[in-house]
Amino acid sequence: MMNTTTRSAKYPHQAGLSLIELMIALALGLVLTLGVVQIFLGSSKTYRLTDGLALIQENMRFALGNLQYNARMAGHMGCLVGPPENQLDENDSAYDEAIYDINQGAVRGWEASGTGLGSTFTITSLAPSGTWSNGSGDGLPTSITGDIIVGTDVLMIKSGSEADVVLNGNPNGNGNTLGVVDNSNIPQGSILVVVAGDCGVGDLFQTTNALSGTLTKGAGTPGNKTGGADFKGDYDDDGSVFLFASTTYYIGVGASGQPALFRERLDAGDSSGAIELVEGVENMQVLYGVANNIDANPRADTYSPASAVTNWNQVVSVRIALLMRAGDNIIDEPAANTYNLIGTQITTQSDRRARLMGSATVAIRNRLE
Question: Which of 144, 149, 277, 369 has the fewest CB atoms lying closer than 10 Å?
Fold first, then answer.
């Protein structure tokens, strides 16, 4: 007898998915996938924007901090009361009063054409070009001509940093040489300021000898005065020596092709050239606090652009504004925006870069005594 088997009703045939059920499942999966992608893209965009703004803020703090510190120390020569005696050769072709003469102000600047107070400047190019001027008629230093982005101001600061030198054996003024303990380690050609121990007198000169146990002034570039131009002070062992620096700050094109804040020493004591400090600095505007009667009241009466400053000895403070931009396009839609940089309206190019503006006002300590 043939046995026949039948599938129990307890284990029915697997029916599978119908086409409609499969399409619904695919549609739901697609919706969920699109939602996840949208969340990811939104989070990524937020992260890029937040990260870009954080980088701009960090660069802003560094740039303004650097400018603030150096502007605050403009004219610093230790305890020296008043400017030092200028022993440099003013007739030498390499001598530039704007660079070397502390008697004519510890800060100096140049205003970009069309960017004064109340002006409106539209950025159409980041190429190094344009014209600059100041109220005292100084020409822009030749070493930075052709490096500055159009529409951005230039700031120069003259100051000194104390050298690790101990004077020795100079009880009386000497026409050419100052003795020091051991080798000075000061490079030949450096511009120096020597200050007497009683802080009453100082001399600005160029050391023209190589590393040795003396600091000698003589012929050089620009060199020193000749014909009986002795040191004006008696620099005994309590005196001090400062390395003089005349430094400009300007906006140029950085290594990455982005606008950047540059620093460049212009005095003969340094040959390092332009140094890029911070990228992403698109514009800089500078105003100068001028005291009308600095002897009676060393406080700023007005803030003026460089083109209106005729006497740099009256400048007691500096107001600086920077416009920073991100390196990447992180904004949804391109736009040209206008920013007020301490009285100058700066309109940017139309792009998708995030930007921030920052400013600081710095009192020049040496001018407030």
Answer: 369
